[in-house]
Amino acid sequence: MDLTHTRRRRLKLLHLFMLLGILLGAAYGTALGIIMGEDFLPHILVHGTLRGAFTGLLVSSAIAYFEIYVVEGANGLRRRPFWQLLAIKEVVYIGAILGGDWLGSTFFGAPGDPGFGFNRITAITFFFSVGFALLINFTMEMSMLLGPGVLGNMLRGRYHRPRLEHRLMVFFDMRGSSAIAEKIGDMAFHSLLNRFFVDLTEPVLAWGGVVHKYVGDEMIVTWPLDGRRNPAGAYAAVREAQQRFAQLSDRYRQDFGVAPDFRAVLHAGPVVAGEMGEVKREIVLLGDTVNTTAKIETVAKTLPNDIIASAEALAAAALPDGMTSQGLGTFPLPGKSTPVVLYSIT
Predict the structure, then answer these.
(1) Residue limits of the Guanylate cyclase domain (predicted)?
(2) Which residue in 207, 261, 209 sits closest to 3, CA to CA?
(3) Above pLDDT 70, what percent of the chain?
């Protein structure tokens, strides 16, 4: 699988962390210089603003590298229990902030700056880093639990009232999951299914998809048809996922004794998106488009094809170069009066 998109996404995140770190560090350093009694503007700019920017660059770079390559790595900390992950990240964040501050004081400290060690500046920075690390880490982990963009949408109240949106939907369904679970046992199947979803998520995110939810052995992904992203990424993501699982088949067989495969069903149309629930809130998608996609998936299980798209899905997004469609005919759907025209994508 070509990891160009993954590397590009990671580099963008790294650069964003560094830019935010510089800006926040400069603001914090300026405020700290004023609090510490600097009364000469050049001193504030050098010992406050510049020192803060330098510290912010060091801290953000260390934290970004830790998040991208240690927490999210192939065998990273993401596999640990939530409380362990939160505790480790808290320690690393505090260490990075204090270390960056001490290095900043070494290069840009004012005359008489106590520098390394526990002092008044260190105490202020320490309590700031504890609160900052708790807030950022808890927010990040809650965002991971809820899914990309869900926490932000909930905080902004975007889906507090139902909204009508147009989306291209993709249902990824593991083939023969019942037989696999029976063969390897429920505990092993849980581990396999989790890895299956993780390996699917990488190409989905790389091509701009939004993971909506997991339902049993399938993952539901959407591409909003809002003009802000290319919906053809849905087809590219499916193709890339096929390549990824072909490359990982030996590793799956080594670890589980089986190599999972999937079928993908694509359909497009209007959906109603809105918050649902009281004790446990989530953003749900409702409407005929969702129901039709599920029913197409039922029909797809009787067909030998790996990728099946409706006429509506093909109308919503052009196929990427190297992919073609072949008509399969018109199929009636269970419980619906209108049949659908389906295509095989290769």
Answers:
(1) 168-297
(2) 207
(3) 81
| pLDDT tens per residue, range 308-340 | 999 999 999 989 999 999 999 999 998 888 899
133/142 Cα distance (integer angstroms): 14
Query: 3-class SS at 152?
Result: helix
* Contact between 17 and 57 (Cβ < 8 Å): no
Q: What's the confidence (pLDDT) of residue 103? A: 83
SS3 at position 274: strand
- Structure tokens that stand for 37 in this block: 């009694």
283-315 pLDDT tens trace: 788 999 999 999 999 999 999 999 999 999 999
Nearest CA-CA partner of 282 in 137, 164, 172, 159:
159
- Distance CA(250)–CA(276), nearest Å, equals 41
DSSP helix/strand/coil, 238: helix
Count Cβ atoms within 10 A of the Cβ of residue 221 and give its class: 0-12 exposed, 13-18 middle, 19 or more buried. buried
Cα 166 from Cα 270, distance rounded (Å): 4
Cα–Cα distance measured from residue 96 to residue 215, given in angstroms and rounded to the nearest whole number = 39
How far apart, in Å, are the Cα atoms of 314 and each of 237, 269, 323?
15, 11, 12
Residue intervals of the chain classified under CATH 3.30.70.1230 are 150-345
| 115-168 residue pLDDT tens | 556 667 677 777 777 777 777 777 766 666 666 666 666 667 677 788 899 999
Question: Partners of 264 in the beta sheet?
Answer: 172, 307
Instruction: Please give the CATH number for the structural domain made up of 150-345.
Output: 3.30.70.1230
